[in-house]
């Protein structure tokens, strides 16, 4: 039987931290972009990550595990890098979109790592698989935004 251990809680909290980072990063990108299609895309992705975080927190707490608060230092540095790139890049929107794509690909890998490395309760596995699928679908659909 799959059990919820402290190790599962630790892995999910790490994923939750990265989800907070992504939400903040997408909000920051939406603030720094003028193209309305990209602004809507980044806003939608921020809202999506907010929902992911809420679902992860609910799942973690349903197994009486402690929930980490806030984002990571790496996420803060990444958002600062996006700010610097937007100041000095001649093509801000393209570089921000490229950063978003890179981050989404990294997110898929992080989900894959959690899904394969630990024995997850079925409810947790279902949540993670659905969130990963949403990110993958977003990557597939982003091709149309690259043309803008």
Topology:
Blueprint: H1 6-31, H2 36-62, H3 73-88, H4 92-117, H5 122-141, H6 143-146
Helix pairs in contact: 1-2, 1-3, 1-4, 2-5, 3-4, 4-5
Question: How would you sum up this structure, described in words?
Answer:
The chain has helices at 6-31, 36-62, 73-88, 92-117, 122-141, 143-146. With 148 residues, the protein is mostly helical. α4 (92-117) runs antiparallel to α5. It is elongated.
- Unreliable stretches, pLDDT < 50, 5 or more residues? none
Give the H and E element order.
Answer: HHHHHH
Based on secondary structure, the structural category is mainly alpha
Anisotropy-based shape: elongated
Main beta sheet, described?
none
Concise summary:
The protein has 148 residues and is an all-alpha fold. 80% of the residues lie in helices and 0% in strands.
Offer a few descriptive terms:
single chain, mainly alpha, 148 residues, 6 helices, 80% helix
């Amino acid at each position: 039987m799959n059990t919820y251990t402290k190790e599962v809680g630790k892995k999910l909290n790490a994923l939750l931290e990265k989800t907070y980072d992504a939400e903040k990063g997408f909000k920051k990108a939406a603030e720094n972009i003028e193209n309305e299609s990209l602004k809507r895309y980044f806003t939608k992705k921020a809202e999506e990550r907010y929902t992911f975080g809420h679902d992860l927190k609910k799942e973690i707490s349903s197994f009486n595990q402690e929930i980490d608060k806030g984002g990571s230092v790496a996420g803060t540095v990444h958002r600062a890098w996006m700010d610097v790139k937007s100041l000095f890049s001649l093509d801000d929107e393209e570089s921000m979109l490229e950063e978003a794509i890179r981050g989404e690909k990294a997110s898929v890998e992080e989900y894959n790592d959690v899904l394969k490395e630990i024995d997850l309760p079925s409810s947790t596995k279902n949540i993670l698989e659905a969130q990963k699928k949403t990110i993958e679908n977003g990557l597939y659909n982003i091709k149309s935004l690259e043309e803008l």
